[in-house]
Amino acid sequence: MNDTKRLRRPSAGGYVRGDETRLRIIEAAIESFGEHGFEGASTRDIAARAGVNAPALQYYFENKEGVYRACAEYLADSSWVTLEPVVTHAADVLSKDSDIPVLIDAFIRIQEAIADRMFAKACDTSNQRLFFTREQAGHEPSIASEIMMRRVRQPLNDVGSRLIARITGTEPDDELTLIRMLSLHGQLLMFHVAPRTTLALLGWKDIDAAKGDLLKATVRTQTRILLEQWSAEGMAKKLESSAGKKLAVKAVSRKPAARKSTAVAAKK
């Protein structure tokens, strides 16, 4: 089966009801997969959580693998709604001869969109975090990682690495570029994957709008400082390399003249 079995549309007024049922099953499945993992979750439990019978789940998705794929597609699509505008903006900035401050702003916009996705109440559920934690651990079917990589992570990583490369004077696939990108995004990741630890340390019960703004402002400042520093370092290296090449050219150009002077002196 190339893709998840699509919703079998009922006639007339059944369209909306069918979509709602399908979404309810997906949300229940994310909850079940998050709690129990792919192997531990059962279609019977998913159907019960969704308030439907087992044949209804098979009607929409055929089997547990189909439900799991649909969950990954749903999470990828909902993530992309938030991230697509900033990725498109970054690609537009890269296509032009933009200066360093504009490139830095484009990267920070990506970070803030990621933060909005992480901290939004609609997305801030332990079940979704658990779903992604299990997926990242590599113990679940690879299809979820493949879908997330193709639809979200690869486009995000592509523009992110290209922005940092342009800002710092490196190549997009350079190890240093990629490590820098991952470290900058890692400032936010701790609050998503380890909420109990971070909230306890800060004495917070949750991350509301005000606390989310504080986190974004802090990360924004740190990211800007680091990118500006790396940009200055990259420019200094470029100037140093350029100066070294000029000295080498001058040294080479002096050698024939020196030989000629030696030859004339020998004749005398």
Question: What secondary-structure arrangement, pairings included, does this model have?
Answer:
Elements: H1 14-40, H2 43-50, H3 54-61, H4 64-95, H5 100-119, H6 126-137, H7 143-168, H8 175-193, H9 195-202, H10 209-267
Helix pairs in contact: 1-2, 1-4, 1-6, 3-4, 4-5, 4-7, 5-7, 5-8, 5-10, 7-8, 8-9
Protein architecture, described:
The protein has helices at 14-40, 43-50, 54-61, 64-95, 100-119, 126-137, 143-168, 175-193, 195-202, 209-267. The radius of gyration is 27 Å and the shape is elongated. It has a domain at 71-245: Tetracycline Repressor, domain 2, CATH 1.10.357.10. The N and C termini lie far apart (91 Å). It contains ten helices and no strands. Helices cover 82% and strands 0% of the residues. The longest helix has 59 residues, at 209-267. The protein has 268 residues and is mainly alpha-helical. Residues 1-16 have low confidence and may be disordered.
